[in-house]
Amino acid sequence: MRADSAYITFLLLLLCGLAGAQTPSPKGRYTVDYTRGCAPLTITLTDNTGALITYLLRNKDTDTFIGEYPGGATTTIPLPEAATYTVTQVAELEDGADPRDAMDILVFPPTNPDFLLFACSNLGARVEILDRQYDYYEVQFGSTPPVRADAGTSYAASGQFTTAGSHTVVVRGRYENSPNTCGSTTKSITARTALPAPLLSALRWNPEKDSVALQFSLEPQVRYRLERLSAASGSYEPLFLLRGEATDTLLYQADAATNWYCYRIRALDACSGTPAASSQELCTAAFAVAAGEGVNTITYSTNPSFSGELQLLNAMGTVLHSSAGPGGSFQDANLICGQQYCYQLRLQPQGAPAGTFSTSTPLCVTARRTQPLPPLQNIATYWLSSQLVVLPQQGPGIGPLQYSLQNSGGARLHEGVGDSLLYTTTAAAACYRLSYADGCGNQASAATPFCPLYLSRQAGEPDAFVPMWTPYEGYRQGVQEYVVQELDGADRVLNEWSAGTATRYDGFALFTPADVGRRFRIMALPAEEGLRPSYSNTLAFELSMEAHFPNAFSPNGDGLNDEFKVLGKFVEKASLWVYNRWGELIFHSEDKEQGWDGTLGGKDSPAGPYVYKALVQTSDGRQRTLRGTVVLTR
């Protein structure tokens, strides 16, 4: 009986192998149509024993019993979820053999395949499958019959459309000897007769960090390749592949400071691997900056076949130098010692789209100089309230940083850093000396003397305004002209009068009380063009108090000095008190025109000394108290 069973099993195995669709159980008592597939999977079991049978189903992953299925000639069992199932046939056999015959069924999740899709020339397309979970894949290009992609094709497939434009590509995952229930992915692609050229829009290289950064725009679903040309290679060499999703990349370039390189991006036919359209070429340059004695030297060179413009820029983006050749040099002498200067090189290829260029990162050096500095030649000054503002005027490239202000005897008064110096002091006629040092520590060979303008008023009649000032010293070629300026309350110029080279101005008529508060200053115009003028302190016109009393009077009726009262100009009010030698008040008046006539109660006061006190107010509202002794004579 056992020999017969073995023979039957052999025949069943042979038949199954010939059919290619059924898989026998380990003991050959039944066959199954699918041993692997995607959920949900339905399997059909075919009995080979003819005995009374039952099928038991268990989830092997969770060791869970699922159910019992009565058997017949064929039995169908659903497997709804992804798992490893064990199907066991239990048969009532007459020979007393083990009634159980079990086999495993693998059910996988219906995962959608992941793949790359590229356009090819001549309406072609290529699929490159990324995952490897299925035995093989069916790839269908549009309505054409599906083609197989498996390990033998490196999981890739190519196809062709009949028309240009948008089409679909469907990729389905398949297991050998399994139903078509697994996942599929559909993508769209534009069929093209020719591949589009990429746009390489910007290149930025860093000579100090040996890096090159590229920015570009690529068409989706087109394969591209980055290529590089160097002086050593003589021809373009491939670096790596790019896809349309990329927009930039960073490269390491070990000798970016000393050698030039050119880059381009080419479209590749993904089906044939042949190169197609290319981008604009962008190049780097060998680029160096060196600090010398008062000058920075910049050198650069690029691909000898470069056609376009090379521009050297400073840190503000200003073009310092440009050339049409592949290289050159530039010397920057407009420097301030001790300050840092940064330079960039920009290459603009001829015929490139607007905004397409390559630039270096800035290279920076610190300007240096070791020679002594020349003395200051021109110094301008002006007064700002109680501060003297000193403005040294240097030519380009000097750029002093630290100033030292001294008095005329050489004693240090003040120091400051910047373009000007503010010294707090009271406006007065004085002279100073100014020295400076640059950022490298170089000192001026000598201090420069200068004398600011100081404006005052000549003493004289209270209604006469004669401005006078100290001559200005501080300009190498002297002062061309002095100008008297009248200012308003906001220091705006209302009127101007030229004084020539004189240091006083006599051109004003007599002033009146209405002129009180008028403000004036002097402007010194340098004889050398291009220099700042200098300004004096501001002076306001005030009425001089000229009120006074005689030291004696004789009230004898001769019309001369008969009355004791206030004398002078611009007296608005006057109060007068007169006392005898014993301190008794004998006269008082609030009228400036009414004085003491030498009497008391209608009788003549005795001759002799008397004491007086007066409160006098001038037309500008100022008050003054006067005291003294007056002698009455008969």
End-to-end distance: 184 Å
Average pLDDT across residues?
A: 91
**CATH class membership of the domain at 2-108:** Mainly Beta
Biggest sheet architecture: 8 strands, mixed
Task: Please state the overall shape, judged from the principal axes of the Cα atoms.
Answer: elongated
Number of strands: 53
Under CATH, the topology of the domain at 2-108 is which? Immunoglobulin-like
Question: Which class do the helix and strand fractions yield?
Answer: mainly beta
Percent helix, as a range, is under 10%
Q: What is the overall number of helices?
A: 1
Unreliably modeled segments: 1-20
| Integer-rounded radius of gyration | 54 Å
CATH architectural name of the domain at 2-108: Sandwich
The amount of beta strand, in percent, is over 45%
Signal peptide: 1-21
Organism: Cesiribacter andamanensis AMV16
Protein name: Gliding motility-associated C-terminal domain-containing protein
Keywords: Signal
Task: Describe the structure in your own words.
This protein is mostly beta strands and 634 residues long. Among the domains are: 2-108, Immunoglobulin-like (Sandwich); 115-191, Sandwich (Immunoglobulin-like), CATH 2.60.40; 378-450, Immunoglobulins (Immunoglobulin-like, Sandwich); 455-540, Immunoglobulin-like (Sandwich), CATH 2.60.40; 552-632, Immunoglobulin-like. Helices cover 3% and strands 48% of the residues. It is built from one helix and 53 strands. Strand 25 and strand 26 (296-301) form a beta hairpin. The longest helix has 18 residues, at 2-19. It starts with a helix and ends with a strand. Mean pLDDT is 91; it is low at 1-20. Pfam families: CHU_C (PF13585).
